[in-house]
Amino acid sequence: MGFIEDISTATGMIRNADAVTLVSHIDADGITSEAITAQAISRLGIPVTPVFVRQLEPLTMRHVPNDDTLKIFTDLGAGQQNLMEEAGLPADNVLILDHHINQPAPGGTQYSQVNSQFYGPEYAKCSAAGVAYLVARKLDPANADLAELAVVGNVGDMMARETCGLVGIARWIADDGVESGRVRITKGLNCYGLSTRPLHLCLANSDDPILPGISGDPKAAADLLIRLGIYEKPSDQRVWEDLHADEAKLLASVVAEQMIANGESTERLFAELYFFPHETEKSPLRNASEYATMLNACGRWAKPKIGEAVCFGDRGQQYREAEHMLRHHRSIIRELCEYILDTGVTDAGSMQWIHTGDAYPDTIVGIGAGMALSKLDTTKPIMVLCNVADEPDLVKISMRTYEKVLRCGVDLQAALAVAAAEFNGAGGGHNIAAGAYIPKGCEDDFIRRVNELIAGQFAAGAPHR
């Protein structure tokens, strides 16, 4: 079936449901896709019960009730249909809204699904939040007020990263948000923290692209801003949104000239930016990337329902709790990044790796891996292994890389899926960021196998290197 048929089936199942159990992932895309779907269904007068899981696996399936409610899986489910079948969930009682690779149930159970991977390149760069929004919009056009959450989910799941902006149906959703007045789209520097971080820290923390003479050096960044008349003194706290149009243009021009002078491409210097004008200025909810970080903080520290409350519009006690979790999250991530850099990684040949043991929670090691990679060998993917506190027999694997490595033929999702299956584990994710769980004790052999697979990918993509 095509998109029209699939989305019609999905909305029909929702309308006919007496009650819904909504199962979702704990990251920004999972929380926003759950919040979009829950609000759209609640507006129909249908009761919704949320269930958040770190991973859909045999042990977490026990949190999915064996009752007559319609089970909707958002941001997971496409690759775990075997678990649904093993749990005895009937096809007419399950709906999957996802964007991950589809793995049909081995027994032939045909679960209804709206999956952006099914409908061609126009839909390929659309996360689960985008899929959830399309279903919500079909249920009632008034749900267009939820577009901003879909933008947050798409940006949080790196749908804008490779192309420095949303494309295809994800960009259409952002335009829908513009029409409702809840999203503002601009072009600007491809930096993080444009609503909350002082501008010199935004520039100094830039790692994609790396800004010659600026990245990693807050003093040099502040000196540049003073020289341009944007700062009066090094301690100024102006953020990107504070700049007048001529100041933003001047800064962008000077940084571009500096990159060119150092032989660097400016291809990734500029990006499309997504702001929410109704949110408070200089708050983490003011733009899509920082909003997504707050939701990730909630989910990674086992409080996804706090993130859900923020998505539902809470700006009181729950939001203050989310702010606290965001500060804690950033502090621990910085510590983890420093730990990786201080301890050092092992070069396996085609990738680099480190095992952090019990030092940090498995829910955040992937984020730390991505941050540390900018200060390591960026031509090779990084793998971080860690123990899982509540699953002592398992080891969590997280891998990250850059777009330039993808252009060489590397696909982390493919490598981890193959290797994990060979070791009786499970892996998945995306080409640029992927994860897996494997049995403890096979780490060395697993590392060698993944290194072999990535070496093969590099070799196959050799003409592009």
UniProtKB/TrEMBL annotation:
SUPFAM superfamilies: DHH phosphoesterases (SSF64182). Residues 192-268 form the DHH-CID domain. Residues 20-153 form the DDH domain. Residues 364-455 form the DHHA1 domain. It holds the Pfam family DHHA1. This is DHH family phosphoesterase. It comes from Methanocorpusculum vombati.
